[in-house]
Amino acid sequence: MAKMNFGGVTENVVTREEFPLEKAREVLKDETIAVIGYGVQGPGQALNLRDNGFNVIVGQRQGKTFDKAVADGFVPGETLFSIEEACKKGSIIMCLLSDAAVMSVWPTIKPELTAGKALYFSHGFAITWNDRTGVVPPADIDVIMVAPKGSGTSLRTMFLEGRGLNSSYAVYQDATGHALDKTLALGIGIGSGYMFETTFIREATSDLTGERGSLMGAIQGLLLAQYETLRENGHTPSEAFNETVEELTQSLMPLFAKNGMDWMYANCSTTAQRGALDWMGPFHDAIKPVMQKLYASVKCGNEAQISIDSNSKPDYRVKLNAELKALHDSEMWRTAETVRQLRPENN
Prior knowledge:
The chain has a 10-stranded mixed beta sheet, with helices on both faces. The model has no long low-confidence stretch (mean pLDDT 94). It starts with a strand and ends in a 6-residue tail after the last helix. By secondary structure, it is of the alpha/beta class. 31% of the residues are buried. The longest helix is centred in the C-terminal third of the chain and has 30 residues. The protein folds into 2 domains: 198 residues, Rossmann fold, CATH 3.40.50.720; 137 residues, N-(1-d-carboxylethyl)-l-norvaline Dehydrogenase, domain 2, CATH 1.10.1040.10. Helices cover 56% and strands 15% of the residues.
């Protein structure tokens, strides 16, 4: 474990050089890793672990995701089981179900958490707000987490490309005295790049804030506000979209992802530099109160409760699909479809 300086703050970081794959295999050589859920994170983590030589089984209900696991090479009765059976067989139970599904399946999982087993999550939600979710593990097991900072699809894609997706890690409960080694071994096994230390509550609150903020909610709100303003002032859909989204995602984001925002500022026109420097302050001042309100709503559990209440309704999927369709059908994202078709790689 290395001490790394992040903007003047020292944090614990684990790299593949410090905790190589061979060490991870040694730590987990006698473990049966049961991946519960084959939806968002399940496939990427299960396949990466399998390809890295670990003993992996999958627990999944019958249906499309069960069939996907079969298509990915997991064999019913050998490496693919019901959730209950996989939990019985697994010494490490990787709970990769959605937050709502964890709550509904918890009565099936909990009886199989016998002494010495490990319960693994990739999100701190169920444990952080267990007064609301009911997910209270027994005291004689390890409770651990590795949270990839991206989708399961990204985790798998980057693994196949020989790269790694950064992850956070945490130990909530160490009953065996080996919880940390198991955590780090699993993090390396699923294909993490480097891993940084966190806690369940910090991961849960930062994750919910990020999803509602700069990663999804805020970015859509910002893009739409600029697009609408341009359209309301006579700009065409193509022009508004290119100036709002296409240039950001195709030209500028790769630059500041690679070298930082300061480098990107230094390598654009003087007119752009001046305007960006002048206007970043007003945008910050306008957005900061909204972010503070969002974080407070996350920290007090309000956002968790909204998710629990919404996702538990019988018509949740129908309403969700309607909201997603409205987003898809908006002029900005219909324009995006045409713009993507016109990219050079598609012609």
